[in-house]
Amino acid sequence: MELLLWRHCEAEPGEPDLGRALTGKGEKQARRVAAWLHAHLPDSARILVSPAKRAQQTAAALAELAPRKLKTVDAIAPGASAEDVLRAAHWPDAKSTVVVVGHQPTLGWVASRLLSGAEADWAIKKGGVWWFSSRSRLGIEQAVLRAVITPDLL
User: Fold this and answer.
1) How many angstroms separate the CA atoms of 42 and 147, rounded?
2) Domains in the chain and their CATH numbers?
3) What angle do helix axes 53-63 and 24-40 make, rounded to 10 degrees?
């Protein structure tokens, strides 16, 4: 399985939290990262998106490049647990590539859990993507970090 954690891009401050929109900079970040993802993702990739407006707008930049279905998943909204995200993505058993567009600190908890086995407060930069693969070695399931991409690197 391939699992990509994509943190929403830069958003405006304010309330209500779920209604915060991307800034102009955030829209540019989303387009840059979406172009990179479009070039590297299989057409069969599933895109799971938080219901927050900023996450929806981030994911929409990818959907605009190719006819991909975005699935809004309430379980990955702000305040979700790492377990909520992994369950929604069906890690490590999904047969397809899954992109989760979500939030901090949850995505950092997922990344730390996959790589270290314990949840810690790891930071994923706004607009950043962490790409993981699952594999089995000697009967042990492992997570492999394939790539880390941030908008300023593209």
Assistant:
1) 16
2) 2-153 (3.40.50.1240)
3) 40
Adjacent-strand bridge partners of 144? 133
* pLDDT tens for each residue of the chain, 154 residues long: 999 999 999 999 999 999 999 999 999 999 999 999 999 999 999 999 999 999 999 999 999 998 788 999 999 999 999 999 999 999 999 989 999 999 999 999 999 999 999 999 999 999 999 999 999 888 888 999 999 999 999 9
Angle at 113 between CA 111 and CA 115, to 5 degrees: 70
pTM of the model: 0.96
For residue 129 the two structure tokens come to 């993507």
